[in-house]
User: Fold Metal-dependent hydrolase from Streptomyces abyssalis.
Amino acid sequence: MSADPLNSASQPAVEVRRSARRRRTVSAYREGDRTVVMIPARMSTDEERRWVGVMLDKLAAQESKRMLGDAELAERAARLSEQYLGGRARPHSVRWVTNQNTRWGSCTPAEGSIRLSHRLRGMPEYVIDYVLLHELAHLLVPGHGSRFWQLLDAYPRTERARGFLEGVVAADRLPHLPAAREEQDE
Assistant:
């Protein structure tokens, strides 16, 4: 057993368990407030680090696919506000919407309402958390100036989530060639 060196105070605990009987497979599961990652004993520290990241992302994607409802989304927003914004951002409503196809989220500070695009469903948990935090920060700071970005600096996966979303947007803009592939198979 070893503690994951990637852990920080703001991330959930990760426990890596090595097994001599485990030859090739890696698995992970949640155990209370920690994540347990099972790996082969022969694995190097670099391989361990890589596989812990892969498995954390897989678990997050599986959990976010469970389709959080509006109530769970509101609870999540409250936890994120408490953890990263000192509880200062208090939305009156947080909900999924299907009419946002060019934005990931939106916020109306005067009403205290936050809306997240349905397109986020099924994305990794840290991405949804980032978008929620982004909109929560708008309850405190209206624009995208330096004060706004200082608030988001507290979230350790801001850059990673932004990169993920940029990749999704870029992939959507790529020409899709399924017809060309079908023709090649004939």
Q: What stands out?
A: The chain has two domains: 2-64, 70-173. The two ends are 53 Å apart (CA to CA). Residues 70-173 form a domain with the Zincin-like fold (CATH 3.30.2010.10). Residues 1-10, 179-186 have pLDDT under 50 and may be disordered.
